[in-house]
Amino acid sequence: MSTNNFAAWLLDNGAPNPATALLHRDERVSYGVLRSGVEELAAELAQRFPKGERLGVFSDNSPFFVIAYLATVRAGLCVVPFPPGVDEKVFRRIVISTNMQAAFVQPKYAHNAAQWTDGELEIICTVDNRTNPTGPLSDITLPGDLALLAFTSGSTGLPKAVMVTHENLRANTSDILRYLQLTSQDRAMAALPMSYCFGASVLHTHLRAGASLVLSASFMFPERVLDEMRTHECTNFAGVPSTYQILLRKTGFARRRFPALRFLQQAGGKLPASTIDELAEAHPNVKLFVMYGQTEATARLSYLPPEMLTAKRGSIGRGLASTKLEVLKADGMPVLPGSEETGEIVASGPSITKGYWNSPDETSLYFRDGKLHTGDLARVDADGYIYVVDRARDFIKSMGNRISPLEVEDALAAHPGVLHAAVIGTPDELFGEAVTAFVVPRSRDAADEQTLLTHCNARLANHKVPRRVIFVDRLPMNAFGKVIKSQLRMPDPEVFEAPLSLATQA
């Protein structure tokens, strides 16, 4: 079938109708049931809402989410997934900012959603078709039409809605499929929220390949996730850095065997080299794909082939097949490959989105001349492999030195007693900014401040060693597993009261 519509293209994958698409608890959804459910619901939505209308989806990873999400896109509407664990303030902000009139809401969240919007938002609690419209759904989608408003992970605490088109989704999904080489025999453990661009890309790629997904509602009990991986013979798993640190430090992942597991995917931030080493040692026959991306680029921008993990240690690889990645200095010239010059990663290609919803100033700041200016600083080796140094805005300026928090976090993560670490600069009369580390220990007696400072002294230049180590029960993380450093920079950071999320639960 020739179509511009992303959802229609996704399900036109050649998978036989009886084949399993989704597994969720005791429920199995075949491709035949998924296709008919999406098509029938989409036909109803197309009758009720004008093309381009924004429809929300507030749900855990579940068949409800998948059918509502795909049907909205198939109907030519724009789907707006709510981040998991969303509170009233953020929920209302999303509804108002997108001018949303209706939302699919998983029944267990319906009461809150209705209260939070004073009954003014139409709440749809079922994905079962009710009007039984006849005739095939016409395809009026253009490649540049909006399919999705994807909210950024909001590591600054202020997530923005990114405008993602049908063409963006199709191009990025095709590129990821090319290097993962998924087949219809693959099965993913989908523990990342599918409202997050990384979680969504796992959904998209597996459906297009005719593969299947085991849907996990949360990562609250990671050992149970591992049980399901083994029971359902999952061939792959995707996670952010904190996910893998929890699996290695708080579960039996390193000791347990998963005969069907053939690869792991990692994105959403830099995975410390020491953690990569632990994964390789624990599961030497399982490939690890280290990837780099941004919501503003649909999902993925680059990947490092698993066979290059050792030779290109710490690299994010090179751009995807249809993505051009440049590392440019302030004058717009590329950095010299093989040198220590750093510049900003700038991306172009069909995966680069239209910008931010109703935010022309923000859009013009990061999207210029058809290119995405990522804000990430990097260097390039002689073979063209890219190494992220840090976010430009996160650099610490201390005694005239520019210090990368990532480098210090990597050093701390190498200590076996550290579960999570986040490093920021705090005001200091002598240094300008002092390197301050917030550390979640593996256990209460796993490490003390002097032990960690000695550990860092052996690995870092003196000016990079933290001046202060603060031990906390947990770090403030958003629902996508990224540390919200803006909260750590508050005069009295509420790190102990940070809500449990995908990445903090152990």
The low-pLDDT segments are: 493-506
CATH topology of the domain at 1-16 and 30-141: Rossmann fold
Mean pLDDT across all amino acids: 89
Number of helices: 14
What is the CATH class designation of the domain at 1-16 and 30-141?
Answer: Alpha Beta
The main sheet orders its strands as 2-1-10-9-11-12-13-14-15
> Whole-number radius of gyration?
23 Å
Question: What is the compact description of this entry?
Answer:
It is built from 14 helices and 26 strands.
Would you give an account of this structure?
- This protein has helices spanning 6-11, 31-48, 63-74, 88-97, 110-116, 166-180, 197-208, 222-231, 241-250, 273-282, 360-366, 405-413, 449-457, 485-488; strands at residues 20-24, 27-30, 54-58, 78-81, 102-105, 122-124, 146-151, 161-165, 187-190, 212-215, 236-239, 263-266, 287-293, 300-304, 318-319, 324-328, 343-348, 355-356, 367-368, 371-380, 386-391, 396-398, 401-403, 418-428, 432-441, 468-471.
- The chain is of the alpha/beta class.
- Among the domains are: 1-16 and 30-141, Rossmann fold; 395-471, GMP Synthetase, Chain A, domain 3, CATH 3.30.300.
- Helix 2 packs across helix 3 and helix 6 (166-180) crosses helix 7.
- It is globular, with a radius of gyration of 23 Å.
